[in-house]
């Protein structure tokens, strides 16, 4: 006996096994797409009526019922079952229960294949806007901190060794630049997939006289997909989104790594608020940067989401295959993870205090102005390779005699190169070293403030 409860049951002689229903169902996770599915269905039925594929009164009845279903789902008044298979069938079942056979006309000229392609695009379009807003909020907080810490000098590092003194503001704006590229990537991704897929049907389009332009206009899609086979097979945009999300998480993870190190007693550069740290169950003195550590850890989840989607897609034949049901969970996980991490990181960094005195002291060590001495000699026509060698010998002498560059006498400097003048002591001060780098992109106060003004002007122009 055919399974009469299934919309596709006419061809089958046996009902679906209960364990198969459970195994194949996606309703437990794709139910979160219900509002987008209803939005797409309203647009679709409006187009069907406009093309006289169904009567206007029938379309009106369907739209009224869909809006009622949306309201009930918003308020949790509709229960879902594995027998529904997915959110499309759950909504269609409810629609037919409220409108009778009229509800069955909604699915004309479409398939679940192009329907899910639409739902995911509508969902991701909205979520990218939310993530872009979160990125913007973080960037704004970084600018606020950069302005507040414009006088704070810290050691810059390469290879985790002290390299040259920089402004803390310059460091903060380095992440502003990273997050700016992240926002550009997401915006580019959004533009690429902001294309109407509805009308591709199962894979070949439909013989019914649809008007895809009308549907696109209703749903605010600026473009319409050009190839029905590609349309239902395409999940490039999901992979691209998760890739962009992975880079966001990588940037957050690197930032968190610094904060974790800097909050240790060995560095003492930052104090993360108690509200964003936790303690130890056994050691009463501990204050652990758990939020930062979890963000660092969650980057691995998003990387895993990307790997899952890429592996899922790599061996699929054209066009739609049920494997593609497995794209939702990694997508949803990536969306939720990156959005949550951006929001909580912004809160945490807002409450983080920077120890400017400790940073300044650290920047004074490690011969961080050695390069400035080399460039001092270059300005006196000494070839850089020669000046590099001279300063290397000076550093070796200081290490041997356990003194710092600022404690070395002019006479001692002149033993290594007679062209040193009395101004060398002024030249190697941290403030002088930092503010000498006043070119575009440099760490000088003037350059950093100039960049802040550019950012604020750009933000004001939006």
Task: Please give the structural blueprint.
Elements: H1 18-24, H2 27-30, H3 34-50, H4 56-74, H5 87-99, H6 112-148, E1 153-158, E2 161-167, H7 168-193, E3 195-196, H8 212-218, E4 223-224, H9 228-233, H10 236-262, E5 270-271, H11 290-314, H12 328-350, E6 353-354, H13 356-364, H14 370-378, H15 384-401, H16 410-416, H17 424-427, H18 430-435, H19 445-461
Parallel strand pairs: 3-4
Antiparallel strand pairs: 1-2, 5-6
Helix pairs in contact: 3-4, 3-6, 3-8, 4-5, 6-7, 6-12, 7-10, 10-11, 10-12, 11-12, 14-15
CATH class of the largest domain: Mainly Alpha
Residue share in β-strands: under 5%
Shape: elongated
Mean pLDDT: 95
CATH architecture of the largest domain: Up-down Bundle
Number of separate helices: 19
Radius of gyration: 31 Å
Distance between the termini: 63 Å
Q: Could you tell me the number of beta strands? A: 6
Largest sheet: 2 strands, antiparallel
How are the strands of the biggest sheet laid out side by side? 1-2
Helical content stands at 55-70%
Could you give me the name of the CATH homologous superfamily of the largest domain?
A: Fumarase/aspartase (Central domain)
Low-confidence stretches: none
**Which sequence of SSEs, written as H and E, runs from N to C?**
HHHHHHEEHEHEHHEHHEHHHHHHH
Derived structural class: mainly alpha
The structural domain count equals: 3
